[in-house]
Structures are given as structure tokens and as C-alpha cells.
Amino acid sequence: MTTPVLSMANVTSGYRGIPAIRDISFEVLPGEIVAILGANGAGKSTTLLTLAGVLTPISGAVEALGAPVAGGKPHLVSRRGVCLVPDNRAVLSGLTVRENLAVALSRATARKSTEVALDLFPPLRKKLDIRAGLLSGGEQQMLAVGRALSREAKAILIDEMSMGLAPVVAQSLAPPVRRAATELGVGVLLVEQHTDLALDIADRAIVLSHGEIRLAGSAAELGKRRDLLEASYLGEVDPAAIGE
Ligand SMILES: Nc1ncnc2c1ncn2[C@@H]1O[C@H](COP(=O)(O)OP(=O)(O)OP(=O)(O)O)[C@@H](O)[C@H]1O
Ligand SMILES: [Mg+2]
Fold first, then answer.
1. Percentage above 90 pLDDT, the chain
2. Distance 193 CA to ligand 2 centre (A)
């Protein structure tokens, strides 16, 4: 059996003991893209932060690459090859693109991983010596995602991949992420407000509403059931009534 790169079993998590997500169970396999959909405040970022070891769950089991995730120790999770791209993108704005791609790597590793990032996102090649803070929003997102994918990531969690980006720019991010999953076997957990874009590149999707999973299924299936999808965003679907 394949070991999931990320998994949650009956996880309740939140802030200062108050749950923001309840009884969440799902997994992401190597090479798979799972999209998390849902309205503002549904619990999408909380799910990512819990998987990345930033938040400590109130109950339930969180695992990355088959080993438990200790809450409050995100550096240990990242050392295993689990990369979080937060919704503020977190590029080092005072450093150039080249420096961003090389941070904390030896010279030889930096060269290799820079090539991986540039191969996935060719538009960055022309910007190598530009400070990241001067890049456009789309280029910064390419850098953030490319940087994560270039570091032999086993799993990547991308929060709001296309936030603030023009649709055509957002769409240009999708194929490299799909390639990283298919060709490099990276497991991807993607939070994306653009439902069409998310369902286009994902293998499976989960809809959260008020901190609970309301709908889960293959992206192809969910794409055909827009009525169900919209109702689930509003929390109007009874999860017990839906088979995967
Ligand atoms: N730092 C925090 N402290 C307390 N409560 C928080 C904190 N961050 C989020 N919450 C609460 O947890 C719930 C889930 O928030 P979360 O950020 O996970 O939602 P989201 O689905 O990512 O929403 P959005 O689409 O707006 O990013 C919300 O009710 C929110 O108010
Ligand atoms: Mg969020």
C-alpha cells in the first residue's frame, strides 16, 4: 500500500482551544493533487496550518510521510520535505530571485534546484537578478511555488494559489504544479478560490463548510455536480448522504 504524503484522521483543530475544523479525515497520496474548496472562514487555511505542524490539533492524528506531525514544530515537518506556501507567499522581498532559490542550500544543490524551478517556471529565468519584492504578484507566486517544488518536496501545501492574480496568470501556474505532481511524484494540497481552476488540475476535491467536510469526491465527478458543489459551500449538503 502507498504511504500517504499527508493524512488527517478525525482531526479537530483551531485556535486557543476553540475548534475551527472538526473531525476532518482525508489523505493525499504521492503524485496526487487534492483541492480544498469552501467559503471564507470555512477552515481551509486552518487545515493546511495543522498539516504543516504550525497548529497543534485539539484531537485526532496528523501524519506526514507516514510519521506523526508534532504540533508547534513546523521546521521538523518541513525537514521531511513538506513545504507550505502560505497565502502571503512569503518570498524574501529584499533578495533576488536567484538568492531566494538558493537560500540555505549548498552551492551545488542550489544550482540543481534553481534549474528545477526555472524548468517549471521559465518566465523566472529573465528575472533571476531582480529583487523578489519588485516582481509582479504572479511572478512572486511562481517563485514561491517553484522554490518549494525545487527542493525535493514530497508534499506541498499551497494556500490561495491564485489570490489577487489575473485569471490568465492564475491559469499559468496550474500546469507546472500538475507536472510536479505527475513527473516528480509530489503530493499537492491546494486551496483555491477559483473552483474551475481547482477542479481542472486536481484529482480529488474536498469542500469544507463551517469547519466540516461537506462533500468529497473526484474532481471530474464534482465538476459535473455544480448544484451539489454550490450547496455544499453553503453547508446545505448532508455529508452522510454523499458517497465518495
Ligand atoms: N489566528 C486566529 N485566531 C483565532 N481564530 C482564527 C485565526 N485564524 C482563523 N481563525 C478562525 O478560524 C476559522 C477558520 O479560518 P480559516 O482561516 O481556516 O478559513 P479559510 O477557509 O482559510 O478562509 P479564507 O478563505 O477567508 O482564507 C474562522 O472562523 C476564523 O475566524
Ligand atoms: Mg485561508
1. 67
2. 10
